[in-house]
Each structure stands twice: as C-alpha cells, then as structure tokens.
C-alpha cells in the first residue's frame, strides 16, 4: 500500500487505502465504497476475481477501470481495458520455491519438511504446490508432509501443525510461506513439543520475521521489497490507464536472510518501508521516466 501510494502520487494522483482483511464482505464493502465515491480507478491486491465477481463487475459497470493485482486471471476473465490482471504467478512460484531451497541448503538430505500450503487464491495455491514440488525434486529421499490453510482459518493452523508433527515425528523443518502466519504455526510446534527440533522457514521479509531470524527463532526468511512491489502495482495501473497491455509481475528480487547476514539490516519499522534491505531506490526514477514524469 505504501509503495503503490508513492508511485501514484509521483504521477500526480491520490490514493485511498481500504483494508479488506481477506474477508469477502469487507472487500466487497471496499469496492462498493470506491464506486460510490467516484474513484478514477480501483486497484485490488491479492484477491481473486472469482471470489467476488459481482462486486468487481459493479465497479466496472460504473465505468471505473479495475486492476486486479497480485493474482492470476480467474472466473473465466482475461485482461481488457476495463478489468486487467497484474499476474504475479511466476514471481510467487519463484519465491515459494526458494523457501524450499533455503531449507535444503541448511539441512541437506536430512531435511524432513512439513509444508504449510496457503490456499487463499489460485496464485498462492499453485505457488505452494510449486514449492512442494521443488522440495521433492531437489531431495528425493527427504520426507514431505503438508498442511493446508487460508487466512480465514488462521485460528486452526496451530492445531493442524501440531497434529501433523505428531503424525510425522521425523519432521525437522517447517515451511510457512508467509511471515504473518508463522506465529500461529510455531504455536503448534510448541504444542507438539517440537520447538527444539523443528527449524522454521518462511518468506515476505517483514520486520517480525527478520527479528525472529536475528533472535535465532527462525532459520531463514526469503524477503522481497514491499516498496518495490507497490511501485510495480503502480506501474501496472499506469499501463492499464494508458491503454497498454499490463505485463505480468515476473521480476522478483529476493534476498534470503539467515543468521549470517541479517545483522546487515537495520531492523526498524522505518527501514522496512524503504528498499534499504535490498539495495537503493533508483527503480523509482526508472518508473517515473517510463511514465514521462519528472
């Protein structure tokens, strides 16, 4: 949200953020509010069109272009001038696959993993499957078990992880694809009595995740810059509004944080909202140049 706002404001626009909380009724309310307030465009983030087709169509029906960001086309729809998709499938698959590689890089052929599949959208589901497939392909002798979750059933993750560990006592690695869900999963690890045996791997590179890595509570975190991601959303919106084809979000720059390099990052809320952990902010001017903005 912050990165998107920076990009749109650079181009002279204004952004109003509405948190849908991954709850369909709340998301539908955000879309309805945008339409009623006469927004010039609407950008959604990580919400399948197929989840709320009527709500999306109602916005488009008022002549407001909608960018469905962070997910692949769904519900039989494909991108057009009024409803476009900013598809991150290849990027998300690469990130989720890298989590598996990070676990294997540390524990090698002795890695027996419990992979928590995230089923919030078609993109997270296919990317979770890609991460599991990467693990199996890289280590045919390693054991793999899975647990399924969605944001809506987050409260059940701990008990599901605990039960899976009891059923798979050789497990020594837990992969949780998004940092936000790690605390709930770790509660299940502790409940099963596996806290000293299971190492945790995730992605997002949020502040809490990197703090866990620094404290030795998590083995690795595959980070990507949220600010760069937000500017990518802004660029996709500019493409849509100027009649260009919205190109997929395929260029993920990743950094695997471990105890060996996390000390290089200033772990503060302010630093999280900059590209500092990944490089400089020269990409901002590159986007501005592409938009013809000084």
Explain what you see.
With 294 residues, the chain is an alpha/beta fold. It has eleven helices and nine strands. It has helices at residues 2-10, 24-36, 53-61, 89-107, 122-138, 157-167, 182-191, 207-214, 226-241, 269-272, 282-291; strands at residues 42-45, 66-69, 83-86, 113-118, 144-149, 173-176, 199-204, 220-223, 255-257. Helix 3 links the parallel strand 1 (42-45) and strand 2. Helix 2 runs parallel beside helix 3. The longest helix has 19 residues, at 89-107. It is globular, with a radius of gyration of 20 Å. The model has no long low-confidence stretch (mean pLDDT 95).
Write the layout of secondary structure elements.
Elements: H1 2-10, H2 24-36, E1 42-45, H3 53-61, E2 66-69, E3 83-86, H4 89-107, E4 113-118, H5 122-138, E5 144-149, H6 157-167, E6 173-176, H7 182-191, E7 199-204, H8 207-214, E8 220-223, H9 226-241, E9 255-257, H10 269-272, H11 282-291
Parallel strand pairs: 1-2, 2-3, 4-5, 4-6, 6-7, 7-8
Antiparallel strand pairs: 8-9
Helix pairs in contact: 1-9, 2-3, 4-5, 6-7, 9-11
Beginning-to-end CA distance, first to last residue = 22 Å
User: Strand portion, in percent?
Assistant: 5-15%
Calculate Rg over CA atoms: 20 Å
Structural class: alpha/beta
Largest sheet: 6 strands, mixed
Please trace the helix and strand order, writing H or E for each element: HHEHEEHEHEHEHEHEHEHH
What share of the residues lie within helices? 40-55%
Query: If strands are numbered along the chain, what order do they take across the biggest sheet?
Result: 5-4-6-7-8-9
- Tell me, rounded to a whole number, the average pLDDT: 95
Q: What is the number of helical segments per DSSP (H or I, 4+ residues)?
A: 11
Give the overall shape: globular
Low-confidence stretches: none
Number of strands: 9
């Amino acid at each position: 949200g912050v990165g998107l706002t920076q990009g749109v404001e650079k181009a002279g626009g204004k952004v109003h953020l509405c948190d849908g909380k991954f709850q369909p009724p709340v998301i539908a309310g955000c879309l309805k509010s945008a339409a009623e307030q006469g927004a010039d465009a609407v950008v959604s983030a990580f919400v399948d069109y197929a989840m709320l087709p009527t709500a999306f169509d109602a916005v488009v029906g008022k002549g407001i272009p909608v960018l469905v960001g962070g997910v692949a086309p769904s519900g039989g729809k494909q991108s057009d001038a009024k409803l476009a998709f900013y598809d991150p499938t290849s990027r998300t698959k690469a990130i989720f696959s890298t989590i598996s590689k990070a676990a294997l890089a540390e524990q090698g052929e002795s890695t027996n993993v419990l992979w928590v599949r995230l089923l919030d959208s078609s993109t997270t589901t296919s990317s979770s499957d890609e991460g599991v497939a990467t693990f199996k392909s890289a280590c045919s002798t390693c054991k793999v078990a899975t647990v399924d979750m969605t944001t809506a059933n987050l409260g059940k993750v701990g008990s599901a992880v605990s039960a899976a560990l009891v059923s798979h006592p050789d497990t020594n690695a837990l992969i949780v694809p998004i940092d936000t869900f790690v605390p709930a999963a770790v509660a299940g690890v502790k409940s099963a009595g596996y806290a000293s045996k299971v190492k945790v791997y995730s992605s997002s590179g949020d502040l809490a995740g990197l703090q866990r890595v620094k404290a030795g509570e998590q083995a690795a975190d595959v980070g990507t810059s949220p600010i760069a991601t937000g500017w990518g959303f802004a660029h996709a919106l500019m493409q849509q509004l100027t009649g260009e084809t919205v190109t997929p979000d395929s260029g993920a720059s990743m950094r695997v944080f471990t105890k060996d390099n996390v000390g290089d990052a200033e772990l503060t809320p302010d630093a999280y909202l900059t590209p500092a952990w990944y490089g400089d902010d020269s990409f901002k001017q590159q986007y501005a140049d592409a938009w013809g903005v000084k």
